[in-house]
Amino acid sequence: MSNTSLLALIRKKIVIDVDSMDPAVAIRHSSQTFTFCDMTSNQAIVFSEASKPDRQAILTSACQGIKGSVLDIGQQVESALVTLTALLAKEVFPHLTGKVHAQTSPKHANNTEATIVEAKAIVNAFEGQGIPRSRVCIKIPATPESLIACQYLEKTGINTLATCLFSLPQAVAASQAGCQYVAPYFNELRVHFEPKVWREYENPAEEHPMSPIISSIVASFKKLGTKTLVMPASIVTSQEAAVLASLSPDHLTLSANVLDQLTIDAEGTALSTLIERNSSYSGTDTSNVGVNSFPDYLKDGGQALREALSADQEASRKLADALGIFSEMEEKTRVLLRQELTK
Questions:
Q1: Phi, psi (deg, nearest 5) at residue 31
Q2: Structure confidence by residue, pLDDT tens digits, 92-140
Q3: What is the C-alpha to C-alpha distance for residues 114 and 247, in angstroms, rounded to an integer?
Q4: Which CATH number characterizes residue 34's domain?
Q5: Per the domain annotation, does 165 fall within a domain?
């Protein structure tokens, strides 16, 4: 990898995470001078890996311990799903300096207790594979009920990340819950499944609808002094990665495709100029932001956040759509596991 690549340039500014459960991706973009911090994942990434022919052994292994048990087939599938996620993460874990992330089921997004139970089960499964809980982070959709679960989990020593996040109120609520990270989506999830939904902007920093939102999250968190880190996700192009780098979040999580784009030296000069050009972009004015600028979004069962989401039709639409897509992907993985368990 050339030292002049855009990836090398961005690494100097921001912590880079790998948005993939394919160890080959982490290996390909690692070097003697660079190792990824975290690995992020979700139901779509799990299905993508589980459906690969060369990952059949992991799928089989995930089912071995539970196959033929006294549990009914539905319970076997759910148990194997958690084990599968842990086994896939275990493959990437040696190539990281930080945490592995796993996402709770979208079917539990509006159920605090079910989210807590599942998060604990995921952590236990990862510990069973030799990954300490200090290096596990549970990705949880940023709904009122689930962020209340995050608040509880953080108090018990389980790291959390608020995902499916499209608004400043969601981000502030996550910081109030004590989440380790927030992962605002730059693009809505559907662009990865229906490319025609994705829109290209000449200057994404000023024109993309999520740029001012992410900028305001970064600025507000600095004003509030929160420990919660900002990790933008759902990035499609190297240009978008460069723009996000200019907004100065704490982390960026990047897919294999974007990482590959960022290593193309020919784009480095033009896109490094883009980073510098947008480095002064401030987005929404946060000069008056203080500790009393926001309501307690988690009070009364998350009522203030519920109201904020209800008033933001676009954020609500994107959140619901993301949960729907993740549900579809999770069900596809269940089908694979059911087939394996009933052989």
A1: -155, -175
A2: 999 999 999 999 999 999 999 999 999 999 999 999 999 999 999 999 9
A3: 35
A4: 3.20.20.70
A5: yes
